[in-house]
Amino acid sequence: MDFQHRAGGKTGSGGVASASESNRDRRERLRQLALETIDINKDPYFMKNHLGSYECKLCLTLHNNEGSYLAHTQGKKHQSNLARRAAKEAKEAPAQPAPEKVKVEVKKFVKIGRPGYKVTKQRDPEIGQQSLLFQIDYPEIAEGIGPRHRFMSAYEQRIEPPDRRWQYLLFAAEPYETISFKVPSREIDKAETRFWTHWNRETKQFFLQFHFKMEKALVAPPGPPVGVKHPPSLITGLGPRDAMPGLPPLPPGAPVPPQMPPPGVLPLHLRPPLPTDG
Hints:
3-stranded antiparallel sheet, alpha+beta, 278 residues, 11 strands
């Protein structure tokens, strides 16, 4: 008999599983899931009693084998008990203080005034690069303290309205007050030979020199092309034919063209008449 085309029938299909079979299949799936996520040897609630069975100390349940216990750990009862236990431990645990933030202590010292200073403007004679040399005197500087410096943008200070054309160079050393110099806001050349500092411990003087980067290369004005000379008629007052050596010489008896006067001298027909006597 052909059961293929019967309503609700399918060749090779079995009957509906019973309740016990469904539970057995569900426990097997839970056990496989627990084996992948739980190490039974590290479970604090797993215990094997003297009868050879397994107990859950959290839920107080008894299991015949490890598979049954693992399936129990994935169940609703065990999971709710885990959440309840975690909430209880968190409530009973003493409140731990929050980690303290690292505080930077501000040094307090009595300021004795501003140091002496000297500023020298310099220019490299070879390439024309501009530089500034600062000499700061700290005769009563604290023991073991070295002067410090840094460049500050105009937008960091609160003394003057910010101006993008300027920047500030600060010098600090205890117990002197911090001093600053207003310098043009140009790019600083940080090359080893163009930026250097020196602290003389014997004379208590601090030196700092820096160069500004060249904004535009100095270019010499263009001269006349090689091999081209100015017309000699404009320099020596020679005639136009003498100024052009490529022309042939004049034939004998030909009239000589008038010579051009030297620069600054008017021609004869443009000169004023000479004064007459009487």
